[in-house]
Structures are given as structure tokens and as C-alpha cells.
Amino acid sequence: MASVYVSDIVNAPADKVWALARDYNGHGEWHPRIAESSIEDDLSADQVGCVRNFTLSDGGHLRERLLSFSDLDRAFTYTILVSPMPITDYVATFRCTPVTERDATFVEWWATFEVDEKDEADIRHAVGRETFAAGIRALADRLE
User: Which superkingdom is the protein from (predicted)?
Assistant: First the structure.
């Protein structure tokens, strides 16, 4: 099983970062890789079990199911159902934690997945750098 973990500090209060990031379908508003996104079956974007169906800026298509959601923990976990990447058993978590010594937020985003060894370096880069790190920086740019 492969894994990717990315974290960074966003210089904005955790409640403010979470208010933007908590919309499971709102990533198109702040993430540079998302072209368009919708929640299937008219479910709420914070309803466990909802599926977001989205297109990447490069034309790739994904469907992801929300597995857990907590405003208390400022976190959600999801799994990929359909992806252009050669992966299976993908589960990711996004979490915001207050930095108590200043009004900032520790943002973490991590995933585990199965991938062929020949593809692992490319997938780890695509998920870790192009998706997670780019997304956290985009949140920071939007809020700082």
C-alpha cells in the first residue's frame, strides 16, 4: 500500500479555513486543478455517502464518495470511485487544526492507495504535489 502525506500552515484562523474547505463540493472554487464539480442525487455536500462528480482542468474525470465528515474535528474522509489514475483502494483525509500560539491553521491532507510499483512515483507526485500541496497553498492564497 502506498501513502502520501502533506501538511502546511495557513495563516488564517482554523474556523475560517474550515469554512471554505468544509464544502465537499466547493473545491472548484479554490483548487487550481478542478474545472467543475457537482454532488450527485441532490444530496447535501456534507452528507456522508454523497458522491462528488468532477472534472479536472486537464479533462480527467473523477467520482469520490464522502466516508466521514466532522465539523467538530474539522475533517472529512473520502474514497475514489472513478479516476483516470491507475489506483485502487484510495482513501484520503483532509483536516484543519488550530495553531494555538498564533491565529493560524495546521492543514493536513493524506491518502493511502494501491498502485503498481512502476506507477507509484508518478502517482505519489500527482496526489502529493499537484493535488494536496497545490490545494493547501491555494487555500492559503485565498485566505491570507
Answer: Bacteria
> Which grid coordinates are listed for 23?
464544502
Question: Per CATH, which fold does 2-143 belong to?
Answer: Alpha-D-Glucose-1,6-Bisphosphate; Chain A, domain 4 (3.30.530)
Query: pLDDT by residue (tens digit) across 85-120?
Result: 999 999 999 999 999 999 999 999 999 999 999 999
Amino acid at 12: A
What contacts 24+ positions apart, CB below 8 Å, involve 62-68? 66/24, 67/91
Give the whole-angstrom CA distance, residue 138 versus residue 144.
10
CA–CA distance, 76 with 121 (Å, rounded to integer): 26
- For residue 35, how far is the Cα from the chain centroid? 15
